[in-house]
């Protein structure tokens, strides 16, 4: 049963609804100071209590839909659903219901004090707090910044216009060539060699003179005997004699052109040809132009690994850049991934954040060993996959994967500049991994290119030379260095500035002028790749670090105490001191261990002050007596 206050309140609400029918005014918008165009307090309270009880009493129904539509033009949907005017009346009604009997009646009756001033204030508040901010939200959003541009899905190689273009001609000083031709014929005749210059060919760096023997009884090697005489009479610093030229019936004499007439070979001229674009090589790279003016390309898949060596400013680093850009222009990141290790920290850092990288550029020595170990594990994983699908190399595996709708395995090319800086201090684990990669990685689609400016025997060891058949030799300072790279005299006679000899399996030694690519061109290509394609590394530096930490000591983690923990360490120490013999090669044979294992023990012996360090041309020295050795070992 309703109490007295409820009946009084309901009665007055009925009366307000009948008497206060608002007048229509089309010129006034719903959101205005006209109270009659908005729901009154009584209407709101009535609907709040029970909307259906007023349907038969009201002759005028507020145009709530119009009110909502008009507001929707200005305000968002969220604001309409939470109408501040409705919320205000509902809160006010709840407040009145809680008051005493007299207060409720007084508040309802005093229509002049409640409706017009209060609604006037509320409407004004709505204009300021709700409508105005909402209008600002309807302003069109500013264009997205450049970094948010939608990346391209299909790979499009960078434009060739980003690279410099040559004029396509080679300087030909015919008068100089004819003069040298006459001198060569004169010298050959003077020394009784029955031969003559058949013709000459202009190359970018040298002029090749083709020597034809006039008699079958003439020994072609006799031309080599007068090499120094030819250099003296022709006033040349270096000449190179080929006896014979492979696949030709001529011997050859290469004479350097004057510096001002040498031609520059640009990378764009090599990779814009149909021979490169339509190449059937697995991993084609543009190398340069030979002495006959022919463009030379190499297949990393056939190398399968390469050794690049040469002194400073000889063109070694430029050659590595041409290899990288050749892969970028020919393949997408789905086909080839590049792994860059840069001890100098400045040579490869410009390639950071390009999509072709397998991992971030390694410039910190602490990541060198984990990176090499990861690559070895990746090779083993791929061999398991090859075995699973019955394939013998990566190309067959990818054909099988594509036929089943699975993603391909990309080729991985590891390129490391100045590798001797990190190899000298690397643990035996790194040596074992590198050796394993060189021997087995080709079938798994993994290839290695190492570069150094110090091609001495203590840097390029026997394991590296035996497992890297492809050599890229630039100018070196001595015959000994040339012998380490090529096994013969040749590299010390090069002219520098990209003049190189390529020893490629099945093709012999080829002298050529390496392609040139500048830092400005590299930056343009890298900027294009960064702007258009996302970076998706196969493995991150954090993952490398975690993988290395999970291996634990003695299992590929490079534990510095690995040598002194060896079971033969104490016995080897006593043998060295008693016999004054600190030769790693001899002791590994005596104890029947591997070279790397014995080398680790000697490294720790050096750290403990038992033996001296190694220096080129000198042997290790024993620094302690047997009593001092016993004291050192007791303190371990």
| Class of secondary structure makeup | alpha/beta
- The number of strands is 13
What would you call the shape? globular
Multimeric organization: single chain
**Share of helix, binned:** 40-55%
Average predicted confidence as pLDDT: 78
Distance between the termini: 98 Å
Largest sheet report: 9 strands, mixed
| Residues in β-strands, percent | 5-15%
The gyration radius over C-alpha positions equals 43 Å
Spatial strand arrangement across the major sheet? 6-5-13-12-11-7-10-9-8
Brief summary of the model shown:
The protein has 24 helices and 13 strands. By secondary structure, the protein is of the alpha/beta class.
Describe this entry's structure for a reader:
This protein has 636 residues and is of the alpha/beta class. The chain is built from 24 helices and 13 strands. The protein has helices at residues 4-19, 41-49, 64-74, 77-81, 84-98, 101-109, 111-137, 174-190, 227-233, 267-271, 274-277, 316-330, 368-389, 394-403, 420-423, 428-440, 462-467, 479-486, 519-532, 541-551, 569-579, 584-591, 595-607, 626-634, and strands at 195-202, 206-213, 240-242, 251-256, 284-290, 295-299, 306-309, 336-341, 411-416, 446-452, 470-473, 499-504, 508-514. The longest helix has 27 residues, at 111-137. It starts with a helix and ends with a helix.
């Amino acid at each position: 049963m309703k109490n007295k206050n409820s009946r009084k309140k309901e009665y007055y609400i009925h009366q307000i609804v009948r008497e206060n029918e608002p007048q229509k005014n089309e010129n006034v918008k719903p959101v205005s100071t006209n109270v009659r165009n908005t729901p009154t307090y009584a209407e709101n309270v009535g609907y709040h209590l029970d909307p259906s009880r007023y349907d038969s009493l009201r002759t005028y129904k507020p145009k709530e839909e119009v009110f909502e539509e008009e507001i929707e033009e200005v305000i968002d949907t969220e604001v309409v659903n939470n109408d501040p005017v409705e919320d205000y009346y509902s809160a006010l009604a709840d407040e009145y219901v809680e008051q005493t009997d007299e207060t409720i009646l007084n508040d309802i009756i005093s229509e002049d004090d409640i409706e017009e001033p209060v609604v006037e204030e509320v409407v004004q508040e709505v204009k300021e707090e709700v409508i105005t901010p909402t209008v600002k939200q309807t302003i069109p959003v500013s264009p997205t910044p450049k970094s948010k541009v939608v990346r391209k899905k299909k790979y499009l190689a960078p434009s060739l216009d980003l690279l410099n273009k040559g004029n396509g001609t080679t300087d030909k000083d015919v008068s100089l060539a004819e003069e040298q031709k006459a001198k060569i014929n004169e010298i050959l005749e003077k020394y009784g060699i029955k031969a003559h210059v058949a013709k000459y060919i202009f190359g970018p760096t040298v002029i090749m003179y083709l020597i034809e023997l006039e008699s079958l009884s003439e020994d072609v090697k006799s031309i080599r005997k007068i090499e120094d005489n030819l250099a003296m009479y022709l006033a040349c610093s270096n000449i190179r004699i080929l006896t014979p030229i492979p696949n030709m019936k001529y011997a050859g004499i290469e004479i350097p052109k004057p510096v001002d007439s040498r031609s520059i070979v640009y990378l764009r001229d090599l990779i814009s040809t149909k021979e490169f674009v339509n190449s059937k090589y697995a991993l084609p790279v543009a190398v340069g132009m030979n002495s006959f003016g022919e463009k030379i390309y190499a297949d990393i898949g056939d190398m399968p690994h390469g050794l690049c060596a040469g002194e400073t400013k000889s063109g070694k680093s430029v050659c590595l850049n041409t290899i990288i850009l050749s892969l970028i222009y020919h393949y997408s990141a789905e086909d080839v991934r590049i792994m860059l290790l840069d001890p100098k920290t400045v040579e490869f850092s410009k390639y950071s954040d390009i999509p072709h990288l397998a991992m971030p550029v390694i410039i910190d020595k602490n990541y060198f060993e984990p990176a090499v170990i990861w690559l070895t594990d990746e090779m083993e994983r791929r061999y398991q996959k090859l075995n699973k699908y019955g394939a013998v190399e990566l190309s067959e595996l990818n054909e099988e994967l594509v036929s089943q709708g699975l993603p391909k395995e990309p080729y991985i090319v590891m390129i490391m500049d100045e590798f001797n800086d990190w190899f000298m201090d690397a643990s035996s684990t790194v040596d074992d991994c590198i050796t394993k990669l060189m021997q087995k990685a080709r079938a798994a689609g993994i290839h290695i290119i190492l570069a150094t400016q110090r091609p001495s025997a203590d840097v390029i060891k026997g394991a590296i030379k035996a497992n890297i058949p492809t050599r890229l030799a630039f100018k070196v300072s001595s015959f000994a260095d040339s012998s380490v790279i090529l096994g013969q005299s040749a590299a010390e006679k090069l002219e520098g500035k990209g003049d190189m000899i390529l020893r490629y399996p099945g093709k012999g030694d080829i002298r050529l002028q390496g392609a040139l690519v500048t830092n400005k061109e590299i930056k343009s290509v890298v900027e294009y790749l960064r702007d258009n394609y996302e970076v998706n590394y196969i493995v991150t530096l954090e993952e490398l670090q975690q993988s290395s930490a999970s291996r634990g000591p003695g299992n590929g983690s490079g534990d510095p105490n690995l040598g002194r923990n060896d079971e033969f360490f104490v016995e080897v120490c006593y043998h060295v001191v008693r016999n004054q013999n600190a030769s790693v090669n001899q002791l590994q044979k005596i104890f029947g261990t591997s070279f790397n294992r014995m080398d680790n023990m000697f490294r720790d012996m050096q750290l403990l002050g038992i033996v001296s360090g190694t220096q080129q041309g000198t042997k290790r020295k024993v620094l302690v007596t047997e009593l001092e050795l016993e004291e050192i070992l007791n303190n371990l």
